[in-house]
Hints:
The protein is of the alpha/beta class. It folds into 3 domains: 1-51, no CATH class; 64-108 and 262-277; 121-244, Nucleotidyltransferase, domain 5 (2-Layer Sandwich), CATH 3.30.420.10. Helix content is 34%, strand content 13%. The longest helix has 18 residues, at 224-241.
Amino acid sequence: MExxxxxxxxxxxxxxxxxxxxxxxxxxxxTGKRNxxxxxxxxxxxxxxxxxxxxxxxxxxxxxxxxxxxxxxxSTSKKGVAALEIKRHCQISYKSALFLMNxxxxxxxxxxxxxxxxxxxxxxxxxxxGGRPRYHGQSLPGRGTRKTPVFAAVQxxxxxxxxxxxxxxxxxxxxxIREVVDPNARICTDDFSAYDGIGKEFAGGHRRVRHTxxxxxxxxxxxxxxxxxxxxxxxGIVGVYHNVSKEYLHRYLWQFDFLWNNxxxxxxxxxxxxxxxxxGRRLMYKQPLAG
Length: 291
């Protein structure tokens, strides 16, 4: 509890209701030690609160040690961690482990309103995740199947933005590019026809590699970074999660994107960043899943 308090407030604890720093720790009258619930009280608004309030673990009955462990595993496992593993290690129910992991992924979600657009050279690509191939025993491209389309834009030596999209039409993919890529950037894609004409909207132009002709690199033109990011997700789903429904896929993308965007941090720093991101991310039980 005290670790989470320090990560959230540092040396200046503040009231989560009014923002006042005139706060104090509540103690037990008989022993003089801290209240068992680790309550704080504000001198100004007189409200009581704990470090849980206003975070993804608010109103959770799970011990915070389980939350800290799950945050560490989710932040340090390159290909993800299964809820069943959290269940075994923490000795909690599978339902509680799912509850916990889904809220940690919500904490890792990017803030779309403040996230800067990608600059420099940006690779854009699409893939299909989940479902079954069209023909038994064959691993074929996803177009025309019930697989879920996912779009990615990744800045070389920078951050990544991935999302579930409705389809891979030119209208959908170009709208996704405009939303996350700076107009001064240079776009790199393959020769999929949906990207036709997008280069005119970006100052750096549009370079393409002809995958249909088995061309994968031409000078600095390639989409290998984006494709490798998809490979990590697919290996995580096959090897760790085994199956992810379309309804929840966007949450797993949040987690993989968080790991990618914070890859320069060590495991401890990345865990701290995830815990600190939990503030202001309250997720209600009946809140819609899609987003």
